[in-house]
Amino acid sequence: MQLVSALLIGLVFGAGIALSGMANPAKVLNFFDLAGTWDPSLIFVMGGALAVTFVGYRVVLRRSGPVLGGGFYLPTRRDIDRPLVLGSAVFGIGWGIAGFCPGGVIPALGLLRPEPVVFVVAMIVGILLARLLQRQTPSPEPDRQGV
Length: 147
Hints:
The longest helix is centred in the last third of the chain and has 23 residues. The model has no long low-confidence stretch (mean pLDDT 86). Helices cover 65% and strands 0% of the residues. By secondary structure, the protein is mainly alpha-helical. It comes from Paracoccus alkenifer.
């Protein structure tokens, strides 16, 4: 049942991305082109997503656990550190250059165009490089205050 649920959620997400035009990188890039062919529709797509998410979290988190079992996995860290800032910057730069984000590129693969494939390959290479760098970089000493 979890697999069927994940498939249905993915289909709804993909349909939303496709219907909103966000699978088209030109539409996304036009949002960033403030001095040229600016297209504000991305604001409405994001606003709608935020509204649905806000309401959804309020409803779902009142439950003791997910309907299909397991538990809720929510972030516990609230600090803003260097990896978070750098990762956000890399995400934003990549989105601004390519017009794709990881979630939006998956439905775009269905268009059978080379651009989404190149983006996915580059994204996978970037993930692998980041993991390799994390293994080679020594971790800071854990905070031992209060222990």
